[in-house]
Amino acid sequence: MEDEKKEIKEEVKEEKAVKEEKKGKKSFLSENSLEVITVILLGITALLTAWASYVGSIHGGNQATNYATSNNLSSDGNSLYNAAVQNLAQDMGIWNTISSYEVEILYADSAKDNAAVEAYVWKLQWFCEDNLPENMAAAIGYDVEKFTDGNNDTQEILAWLKDDKAITSPFTDEFVNKYFAEANAKLDEAEKVIEQGKQDNANGDKFSLVTVLYSVALFMLGIVGVFKNTTNKKIVLLVSVVCLLIAVIFMATIPLPESGGIFG
Q1: What is the reported pTM?
Q2: What is the mean pLDDT of the chain?
């Protein structure tokens, strides 16, 4: 009996020693460790929340700026387009007058009516000198200086009229497009700027979502200390860390603003 009692006492001592040894070894996620980790994560999450809010506001500012710039460019482009339409109509009128003089000259020349030829050549000379634009002159091959220098002008103009380019309308698609080149360039630029504004708007919305995710993480970290049970604290802390990681990864995929704030 005494031996059994001694064995029982030895077992009890061993169990107590094991328990004491376990108590002596502090876990990495002890109460104190949980508190320190929670405080550090709270600080990091707060900073990331402020950063996401800041970058999102820059995207919002760039969106407003790009929309305003696009509207101004569109207005300028439309003005240039209207001016191009007027210039085109005016130049078409000039060409109609020139072509009518060409018909008269060719008809008079075929009828051997030298007086009529001279009369219409004179009209063509001075009309072109006062009204013919350089781009149209180049298109139809009319040399203003050469044809008005007083040196055999009539024969030079008759020779010029034998060239198909002289009697063919210059208003091809390529020629007409040049009237609208500047307007189209402005309108294209406006389209690019508005697209950038739309992208800034989308990126700003994404940063707003990131801010929401950070807020969830902050909330979860804030209530860790409410729980008395260590296991519950660990679960809530783990959920908050997951939310934080998701927010960080998502934020890393969003482009930063091209301008504004510290981005220039």
Answers
A1: 0.70
A2: 87
